[in-house]
Amino acid sequence: MTEQPHAPISTVSRDANKKDTNNMATPIAELTDTLTNDKKVKTPHPLFIEVKQRCLIGAEQLKRYSELSELPTDTRTAPDLDVGFGQERALKALHTALDIKASGYHVFAAGENGLGKRTVISRLLTRIAADAPTPDDWVYVHNFTDPRTPLALRLPAGQASLLQQQVNNLWQQAKKRLSQRFRSDQYQSKIEAIKNDTHQKESQAYEVLNAEGKQYDLALTFRSFDNKAMFVHPSKLPTENSDADVKHEKSSNNDKAPSKIEDHSTADTSSINTSIDNSNDDSTNEYGNSEYEAELNNFVQKNHMQKRLSQLTIALEQLEDEANDAIEALHRNIARRALQPLFTPVYEQFANHPLVVDYLRAIFTDMITHVERIVNGDDEEFVTAVLTTTPSRYAVNVIVSHTPDSGAPVIFEDLPTHLNLLGHVEQITQLGTVTTDVSMIRAGALHRANGGYLLLEASHLLEHPYAWQGLKRALQSRKIKLSSLEQMLTLTGSLSLAPAPIDLDIKVILLGEADLYYELLELEPEFDAVFKVRADFHDDVVRTSEHELALVAKMADIIDYANLYPFDRSAQATLLEHLSLQAEDQDRLSLHSDLLIKLLHESNRHARLSGKNIVNANHVTQAIEDMDERSGYLRDLYWDELKNGQQLIQTQGNAVGQVNALTVVSYADSEFGMPARLTAVIQPNIGTGEILDIERDVDLGGSLHAKGMLIMTSYLRALFSQHHALNFSASLAFEQSYAHIDGDSATVSEGCALLSALANVPIDQSFAITGSMNQLGEVQAVGGINSKIAGFFDACREQELTGQQGVVIPMANVKQLMLRDDIIAAVNADEFHIYGVHTLSEALTLMTGLPIDTMNKKSRYRKETLFGKVLSRLMLWDENQNSDDDIDDKKSKKKDKKQKKTKRQKKADKRKKEKRKENNSTIIIDSEADTHNEPSTQNSDA
């Protein structure tokens, strides 16, 4: 069910000019009645006329226009832009921080979003950085001693890429030259000589051992399946083999190549075991005994030779080791002679950088050590890495490189995550295995800005976990240390690199709003120690001719950058006037760059659509109207309700305890002014001056609104409590308001409504009023004054302008007036009026037409004044209360008297009744006595 709006409280009709005995309504102005031809002539009170004339604001005070003659013909002839225009305080703070090299002198640039802080700071830093020394380059390289901790090398600007190129060339040339050397005939002949010499020594050793075995009737042979040397009886050898064959086999096999001779060890062992068994069976046989002794003797000799063979095998293994060592020495010698000419010029090129030379020598040594793996090309560590031209082992990972004499870097990081700030180590998954190497180290914004300047949005920095902690740690230690964020977040122990830290020399500028700065100071104890300098950016600047020209230069700079049409004088003036409106001050200009850029682009669009090649005032006005229309959806809904009568706003007539208050509705990017009906209701003889703030009690009023109510309450108590007790209670409410209300700009309107209700004096509904008030009754400035005036003007125009309507505003707000041209035209035509007041008394005079606080000789408010009427009503309520009490006392006494009389009468009647009862009892007794006597008499007669 839709809630229907209630009728306004304590209102009177427009023709309510008759006095009623219970609710006396005083006219809008105190009228002086004079008799002329038996007719009354009504004239306003002289004080009302005086206040009205004194407070009236002329049309020339409603807006400040720019002098066209002082502006350039168009933006093409505008002066050059001063980068620091309007932000001298902030730039001075920046220079202070940049000049001090001590730790912690970083900057927090505080100011509203849209001021162009980043643009101003970037241009200033770019100018300073151009003359600053170019920082060094940094590279990460493989640590051949501890592969898990890559080395960080510093080189002069431009040398990092050169080192990377030189190492790549060294790898390509080294691989090519080594392949050529190891395929050469000379290399093959040397290898063959070493092998032949080794084989010859082996053959000689076998021949000597074989000759020794023959003394024991044993022959040296090799098993066919594993090429193992062993001694057997000559009878066990194949008949086709001879000693020459054995020698040939030994000489023709490399590293004991498998022999074609069959293994007879098993047969020999079985024959020995058989002979032993036979000897047991026939121990008495002499022939058997001699055979047994022969076999046993052969077995002992064979074991002896096998031991000699084992000793020979050890000697041959040492011989092979010597041969392998000789081959490795040959390889290294060849590699050294091949690589030395390649590395020598590179050593000389980086001779001034000992750490780089040490690294190059480490590469040289590593290549010599692993020359076989390099030449074979089948080892993963010596295969070209992904996305590189060299193996990761020899990769030079350029972390940051600068062009020589290019100045210091100025970096803005728009996504300041922990990884993007401090860098990270990438990983790659191959066949289910996660690997990483030095070539996968990635630089962060701190690496790129090292030696220069880094700009960050503070709100973006705080959005990402561990980003602030990482930045703070780096700035405090003055080192960039890469850490695995994955391990920090998941608490896992996965294998990763720990690159050596890099020295950090940087100035960081955080961009953010002032509220965020205060929150960081409160919540982060170390924030002030890291960001010691605060640079405040102003929202506006004083409006002078010089500053207007500077803003035109800023417009010209934006126009040139965006390639827009030039703007003529009229367009420049309209833009400057709109910037004063945004600053809400005739004498100030807004410095919000976002708004200016938006206006320039949309004005350029209207000029292009109209076929013009230069932008004029009409195009700028159309752009402003378009922007106002886009953000005016809620405002249009309100005006529709006003047209349909759903919103009750009265712009004519009089009403008691009812005021048109001026408010501003803010929602997202939409802001507009609108009048709101404020009503006050009085409850006589109840309470001691308490005022119920309905908005506050239902949690729709903010703390500032509550403060205004309390100030107004204190003011009223100070006014009347010394003259009479406040024997009433009151309530105030904004009618048809269902949203949160805050601010103290309704204090004056609340005071007017409450005093009107107390004095029973109507308020002219042709006026709307706004203003804050202190405890002395002085009216103070409020915000959104232009929107508030425009809101009531639109409401009056909707309900027809009568020429009597107007607004009452604080006089302190007059300098902030930048009203629309149609409002100024209505003021010039005397159809609408604007009044500025200094005190609540002046506002009440304009609203009621009465003198407010004029006193007589006895320091009492005169009866015809508003305050006098309030005191009269207070006393009247008190007298009425006393009269009612007297009447009640008389009635009570009369009732008591009557009750006492009735009680006495009842007592008298009771006594009379009792007396009569006694008399009746005596008569009855006497009768009874007579009756008894008669029979007795009769009896006695008988």
From TrEMBL:
Q: Where is the composition biased (Basic and acidic residues)?
A: 244-266
Record's keyword annotation contains Hydrolase = yes
- Give the protein's recorded name: endopeptidase La
**Stretches for region Disordered:** 1-24, 236-288, 882-942
Q: Where is the composition biased (Low complexity)?
A: 268-278
Residues forming coiled coils: 302-336
PROSITE patterns assigned: LON_PROTEOLYTIC
